[in-house]
Amino acid sequence: MTEISPRILDHLAALEGAVANLKDTWRPDDPAYRADVYRQTMTSLSYAYFAYFHATPEHPDWGPLWNPVYTLQPNPDDIYVMTPIRGDLTYRLSGNRGSAKILSITTQAAQSGSYDTMPVPNAHNEVDTNDLGIALGEDFEILFSAERPAGHKGHWAPLHPQAGYMYLRYRMYDWEREVDPVLSIECLDPVPPKPRLTPDEIIARIEEMAKFPARKTKMYYPMQNGVKDRVGFNMFEPVRYPGALVKQTYWPACFQLEEDEALIIETEIPESAPYWNIQLNDPYFNALEYVYRLSSTNGAMAKLSSDGRFRAVIALTDPGVPNWLDPAGYTEGGIYGRWYECSSEPVPTITRVKLADLRAHLPADTPVVTPEQRRDELARRVRACQRRRRW
Fold it and tell me: pTM to 2 decimals?
């Protein structure tokens, strides 16, 4: 039997591993960076409770994944949930699609943060309700199993024998008007009642929780650092990530500016663009505050210029133009854009200018956004985001 210390901190000693990963940040000796990493460690630790205690493969239940609290670069348009599963069991996913722009289900062998070395390949398959022909607002069921049951004529998707987790994301374009899905998952095989955990099991899971933040940052820091190392600041590097949505191309960059400067992001929009967006991250790969800050936009929210191009402005203070991306006090960090199933994938540009000279670098007919209009824009965003189920 595991020896249970009278001090719970003895079982959380592995948290120091996340702090040790400060060496891999852009400014490891900066006290502000250290404080941010402490906070990041707490978000990952609090999320890890759901990862290790909330559900089991035999008793699945949706738990929160990435969102405004449990950060590490969630897409602000997406709600992510997950549940543990087993590849040798049968599951029924059912509910109503709502009006989600995209509702996709992926299965994986392992959850990032749960292992020092992730299995390769990790992702197994991706199921998209658009591809299945499930309409907006439609009630539906999808059966997941190793083999299609004899005589089953409904929606079905295969489970890999090594499947250990199911991830589900639903993506909204118009936060104010679209309706979230309502979903449940059930194991259809006979299983015993959900058991009480033994003391050994509880301690083992707590100690795995303590390792989780370091494992996450060890995986995610290199993704953002790699962009900076390869192309520097203020330049995009399009990429497709293994295990991410197969129809999606990302365009990451690392931004940097001074307090009296602005960054102009400019791109053409593909002729067919079912979905695209752009968001700002901090230097540690966390999405910036996006409920109470205008740190992201998408194809439904953005205002295009009269020439049909998209232009956004990163600046620490409101520049009084459409598509302000607020870096929430950071003068450096990450940018992530996405083209999803688009007819082309243009690479945007970034132009660094003095804030005082901003309008000289924008089309002459760029509208003025007044403080009153900005307050209204932000208020509508806050209401819309809070009305989504984020955990």
Answer: 0.94
